[in-house]
Amino acid sequence: MKRIKGIMVCLLAGTMAVQPCLAWGEVGHRVVGRIAAALLTAQAQKKVAAILDVDNTKTAVADALADAAEWPDSVARNEYTRSIPWHFIDLGVKPNPAKDNPLWASPDTAFAKIVKYFGTVKRGDDDELEQGSDLKFLVHLMGDVQQPLHASTDQDRGGNCLYIKFTKEETGTMSPKTKFHSAWDKAILEDRLGTNDRLIARHLVRDWKNLSQAEKSAISSPALSGDGSAAVRAWVTESHDAAVAQLYGTLQPAVPKLESAEVASDCHDAAPAFKSKVWMLDEDATEDASQLTERQLMKAGVRLAALLNAAAQ
Length: 313
Fold this sequence. Notes:
single chain; mainly alpha; P1 Nuclease; three-stranded mixed sheet; two-stranded antiparallel ribbon; 11 helices; globular
């Protein structure tokens, strides 16, 4: 497999295993917006350009969607604080329907807001917060839910109360002690892929176009229908499952699997096991995490494009 400036260029085989906190960071969110822009139909590009008030060109819309992907973190978190819970859905690493099912019914989770804003963008309804905000949140939240720690918690605020060290690519040494969530949002991504969102997006779009039809179908399914809730729920569930098996499941030593629970921002009531220990990602596990990051970014961009294309029909 060939790396180009830190990017692993690889084909995705088979069906792919596929908090009040940021997801992907600036680079990852902008990558998602740019991937989606590259895959828009002409009708969808025109609709997005009109909503975001930019020229109807591929370059202008790509830049605008990249900016839109950042806005919910960089602006809305401060100006519209009620939006903070919209960025995640804290399904427990250990399933418990009594705790998890109410989250699916809540109007204030990433799942609910994606379904809502898909509908409002499609119908052309007034925006909830300000002009263009529904589309901006749709772009952002599709990135959020494909970051697996935004679809899961282990009584640790989605990895915000659990610390790890991972293997850095260039030196092979261990990283500084890092919050698990931050490692996934930013540190591993930037260590392995760099910070050039245009370059990363370009390579991931190329990889998407090189996939077989069966591989593309595995990412795109289930097909959108109705209000989109069935497809979005399946995508969130897939991301949650990836968190359980491929994020928490690869930490050393083994991490206890716990049910969903609200945890304070200072982590004082997080699971006791996470308060004094640092978990490790060895070289192989860190490389697997990097490849999963690429897959999740690609999925987010492709699925966002599917929503925007459907909203423009």
